[in-house]
Give the backbone structure.
Amino acid sequence: MYAPLKNDSFLRACLRQTTEHTPVWLMRQAGRYLPEYRATRARAGSFMGLATNTDYATEVTLQPLDRYPLDAAILFSDILTVPDAMGLGLSFVNGEGPRFASPVRDEAAVAQLAVPDMDKLRYVFDAVTSIRKALNGRVPLIGFAGSPWTLACYMVEGAGSDDYRLVKSMLYSRPDLMHRMLAINADAVALYLNAQIEAGAQAVMVFDSWGGVLADGAFQQFSLAYTQRVLKQLKREHEGQRIPHIVFTKGGGLWLEDIAAIQPDVVGLDWTVNLGAARARIGDRVALQGNIDPNVLFAPPAAIRAEVERTLASYGPPIGPDGRAGGHVFNLGHGISQHTPPESVAVLVDAVHEVSRRMRSA
Ligand code: CP3
C-alpha cells in the first residue's frame, strides 16, 4: 500500500539495531522558525486552521525535510487535540499559546469528561495517511500524543502555567478526581495513538512535557502509572512491522529506571542528563533519544559542531560492550525555539551525520 522505506535508520536505532549513522530529527521541527511555515500558517489563518486541513498539515510536515536530511518526519498536529475533542474548546491566541474555553476545575466538570468519539479526530488520522503517502518512503512518520498528566495540566489550568497551582491543588486535595481524569485521558490517548498507527504512523511518541514538575512519588502515581496504562493498550506491531514506542519526560532524569520499567522502546531525555550515564543505567533495556540543549542553535557553526561531537561522544561507541547496537536517536532536549536561525539546523543535522559516521569507521 505504501512505498518501502528508503531510510529506516530511525526505526532501526529505536529497536537497537545497527545503523550507518546516528539518525536525527528535532522536536517541533515543523514550526515558526521556518519562514515557509509562517507563510502557510498565514494562509491557513490560525494554528487549528493548519492542523485541521489535510493539505496544509501535509505541506508543513514536509517543509523541514525539504530543507534538511532529517531521518524522521513527525505528524504536524498538537497534543491538545484530544482535550479539544472532549469538548474543552481549544484556541491558540497569537503569541500567547494554547487556551481552553472550558477548563476542568471541579467535580461536576470531571464528571462530564469522557473518552471522545475518535471521529472528532478524523482530521488527524486523515493527515497521517496523507503525510505517509506524500513521504513516499523517504523516512518513517512519527505519530504522537500528550501524556495523561501533561494533558491534565492544560485541562485544569486552562492554559500554560508557571507554577501548576490549580492542577496540583486538585491533585493534593481531590486525588480521586485527578485519578478519574487521568484514567479517561489514558484511555483516550491509547485509542488515539492506535488510530494513528492504523492510519500509517510508524512509531509513536508520548510527550510527558510536565512530568518533571511533580514531586518524587507523585510523578510515579500521577504521571508514570497513566503513561503505563497507555503503553499497555498500544499496538506493538502493525502489518508485520514493529511500531516503536517513545516516552519523553521532560525533567525525568532522576526517574530513568522507573520510566524504563514501563517498557517503552525508547526513552527521550532532556539536556540535564548525561547520555553515557543514562545508557549505563537503562541502555540494556531501551534506546535513548536526545538531548542537546536547543539553545546551542544560537551559537556559531563551530560551537554547534563541537556540542554535537560532545553529545555523540557522551553517548559513547555505537556498539555497546554486549555487542549490541546501543540505539541512539539524536534530538534536542526539548522543542526548537521559534527564534532559531534555520541555517543553524543545517549545521547540526550535517554534523550529526558526519561525526557519527566517522565514529563508526574509527
Ligand atoms: O514537532 C513537530 O514539528 C510536530 C508538531 C507539534 C506541535 N506541538 C506543533 C505546534 C508537536 C509534537 C507538538 C507537541 C506539543 N504541543 C507539546 C509537547 C511537546 C513540548 O513542547 O513539550 C506541548 C506541551 C504542546 C502544547 C502547545 N502547543 C503549546 C504550549 C503551544 C504554544 C507554545 C508555542 O511554541 O507557541 C502550542 C502551539 C504549537 N504547537 C505550535 C506548533 C508549531 C506553534 C503555534 C503557532 O504556529 O502559532
About this structure: The chain has one domain: 9-361. The mean pLDDT is 97. The two ends are 40 Å apart (CA to CA). The first strand starts at residue 73 and ends at 74.
